[in-house]
Amino acid sequence: QPLLQCKGLRKVYPNGNVEALRGVDVEIFQGEYVAIMGTSGSGKSTLLCTLSGMDVPTSGEVLYRGKPLTQHGSLDRFRALELGFVFQSFYLLPTLTAIENVQVPMFEGPPRSSAEKHQRAHDLLERVGIGHRANHLPMRLSVGERQRVAIARSLANEPKLIFADEPTGNLDSRTTEEILAIFANLHETEGVTLVMVTHSADVAAHAERTLHFQDGQIVKEETNRT
Ligand code: ADP
Ligand code: ADP
Questions:
Q1: How many angstroms is it from 13 CA to the middle of ligand 1?
Q2: Residue 45 CA: which ligand 2 atom is closest?
Q3: Ligand 1 center from residue 199 Cα (angstroms)
Q4: Ligand 1 pocket, residues with Cβ under 6 angstroms
Q5: Which residues are CB-contacts of 111 (< 8 A; sequence separation ≥ 6)?
Q6: What is the pTM of this model?
Q7: What is the pLDDT of residues 1-18, one digit of tens each?
């Protein structure tokens, strides 16, 4: 059974009558690393939003472990506990240090003492290679370090599935490789399931499988050589 699945997903934005998704079928299995690749405006963000329950499709259904997303209790809680998110522009809280940012989602997770939260956040920062920057504010970090903090934060509640929306969109090529290496490591050594949206063929090539997206539809699917 796929971890996440959608069938005939359609999304029409009422304003402007844009049909952003025009019948999309996707199956993502536990432990997979999948890239969704397409040009700007092809509907990648819309797909990611509907797959993760942040937006409601006009028709079609998203199933998580074979059950509609809407039957997993509160969607907010479902997202906080089962999913992790990494964005192009990081979305770190500017007044919190790196380690405090990583702890933010833990308030929705299983009860932990503040010492446990702190230790766990520190371990997560170590896992992405910036334990030594734990007490810095985001503005004191390089963009690559900020994305590492965001990745550590996405792991706060041990999600089954991580969505990354253009995670290297604001990074130079060297930093892009570093961040992609972290994703590859999480995938290979910890079996994290990853869905990454990108407009870049080079970035998509790091995934196991690429879904090519065009005008709201999957036009091609390929297995990548790694
Ligand atoms: P991508 O992520 O591939 O750039 P999007 O999913 O953001 O594509 O957009 C797909 C299409 O839907 C575009 O034509 C975009 O302008 C339109 N669109 C996206 N979000 C909205 C919205 N909230 N309201 C109206 N149109 C939207
Ligand atoms: P990105 O591709 O970097 O994720 P976008 O520029 O596609 O971001 O969209 C940013 C936000 O604006 C999204 O929440 C999207 O739904 C919204 N949006 C995109 N296009 C439109 C549009 N034509 N009308 C209204 N909202 C839009």
A1: 8
A2: 4
A3: 14
A4: 13, 15-16, 18, 20, 38, 40-46
A5: none
A6: 0.89
A7: 999 999 999 999 988 788
The CA 40 to ligand 1 mean position distance, Å, reads 9
Q: Which residue has its alpha carbon closest to ligand 1 atom 22?
A: 13
ipTM tops the 0.85 cut: no
Q: What is the pLDDT of residue 14?
A: 86
The residue nearest atom 25 of ligand 2, judged by CA position, is: 15
